[in-house]
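We modelled the chain as a single entity of 423 amino acids. Its sequence is:
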Amino acid sequence: MSSQTPKLVLVQVCRQWNVLATPFLWEHISITKESQIESIIDVALRPPTIHSSDTNRPLGTLIKRLDFQPINDSPEINWTWQEDGQSNQDRPLYPPAPRLCTMVPNLKILNVGARWLDSYKFNISDVIPAGIEHLLLTVGAGDIWSIHQFVELLDSHPSLSFLSLPELEDPIEMDTKVPPFNWRNKSWPNLRELIIDHMCGEEQIERFTHYIPYSVFPNLERLSLNVIPMEEWFRPLLSLHGASIKALHFTIYDAETDSAIEKEVLESIYQLCPQLEEIGLVARELPLGNEGVKWTKIDKAFTEVTVLALRFQEYEEGYGEYWEWFLDNAFRWARSMLPKLRTIRFYDKANWEYLEATEDLLRPFLRKCQCIGITVENNLGVQLKVSDYIQEEEGETEENGDGSADEFLEDEDDGSASNDDHD
């Protein structure tokens, strides 16, 4: 709610400012607990308290983005009624969260974080406005969609350009009697970005590749995985969609399993994604005592890539040595693999805020980037103010010379280092 404070101040200045600022106050609503939803529902169908002839619309129509993101240890935000048995006549058809979705007809972005979303009891397609453009479902394991539900979502929301892929059922495993889906005349050309952010990423991609023809997403340009892709199931996906992919994000190292991406996967990306302009790398926190791990490289360069997106997932905060390892590997990987790199972009807000507040860690990284003409920015295009961090050491930089970036890259093997031993 802190980001709302300036907007709240504006609407309280005077009647005229209230009329002008109210749409901005309501355009983005972030919800962390269910009690907040009830408060919004109470006023969503009412017009603003102070309104003009142009703003005499229900407040719910002003909402363009909804984030349902319960914080750790908070009660669940329910999307289906929990108790079994017949519906209570006095009870609304839906719990508060989906009921609110029916009151926001101009919604464009919906982010749903839920530990459980029972697709057998509740079809989220029924409550999402038809004009939705961005749908991110971050749901725990166990929620499985049928192919028919997936198609229904796409058919009823043709403006979708960004979608997280739900876990799809395998018709063979489910032993369903439903005949194979007829994909004739099915196409969703607006879909450009697909997110696979599920712990069962391998099964997700295998089913997506096997059951859904590539022709239904003719303009797919961006693909993100929150797992380390494996050659046996990732290459078939790239064989179908790789030719059109311009941005590809994936996990390059995971400390929890002490595993890294294989060289063969990078080779497949190189071979099958000729239009690639952006690569995104995710690393999960380095375990203690394993600081020597280097990110996997190959002896080929992605010559058309100009943007490197980075995200560091820390299991615990405040370990500067992990960040030093992360930035060190990111810079080495970029120098080796991305000869035309111009921008390093941090998409994660927490990552960005940590870097801004950690001068001793950030200063040498920015200096190296500056030496080879790379800008460092966040997902909004806001650049780190290089002068704020390196001006103090200008004399030291001149002493070291412009070769500091090259000195940083000491002679090493062709890039795989300790990753050859990862399975």
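As a brief sanity check on the tokenised model: Confidence is low (pLDDT under 50) at residues 5-13, 392-405, 411-423. DSSP finds 15 helices and 15 strands in the chain.
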